[in-house]
Amino acid sequence: MTTSNESDNRLDRIEAALEKLSDDLGQMREEQDRGRKWEDRTWDVVKWVGGISAGLSISAAIALVGLLVRLSIEGK
C-alpha cells in the first residue's frame, strides 16, 4: 500500500510533466505559426515575380509587334 507522501510525490511529478508538455505544445504552436508566416511571404514573392515577369513579356511582345509593323511599313 502506498503512503500519502508517496501519492503526493507521484501527483507532483505528473503535474510537472503536464506543465512541461503544455509548455512544449505552446512552443510548437509558435514555431508552426512562424513557419506559416514564412510560407505566406514566400508565396507572395512568387506571385509578385510571376506578375512582373508576365507584364514584362506582354510589353516585349507588344514592342516586337510594333517594330514588325513599322519595319513592314518602311520596307514597302
Give the secondary structure arrangement, pairings included.
Layout lengths: L3 H72 L1
Topology order in helix (H) and strand (E) letters: H
Helix content: over 70%
The rounded distance between the terminal residues' Cα atoms is: 111 Å
Give the helix/strand class.
mainly alpha
Shape: rod-shaped
Q: Strand percentage, roughly?
A: under 5%
Number of helices: 1
**What radius of gyration results from the CA coordinates?**
33 Å
Low-confidence residue ranges? none
What's the mean pLDDT score?
A: 92
Number of E-state strands: 0
Describe the sheet with the most strands.
none
Summarize the structure.
It contains one helix and no strands.
Folded structure, characterized:
The protein is rod-shaped and about 110 Å long. By secondary structure, it is an all-alpha fold. The protein starts with a helix and ends with a helix. The protein has one helix and no strands.
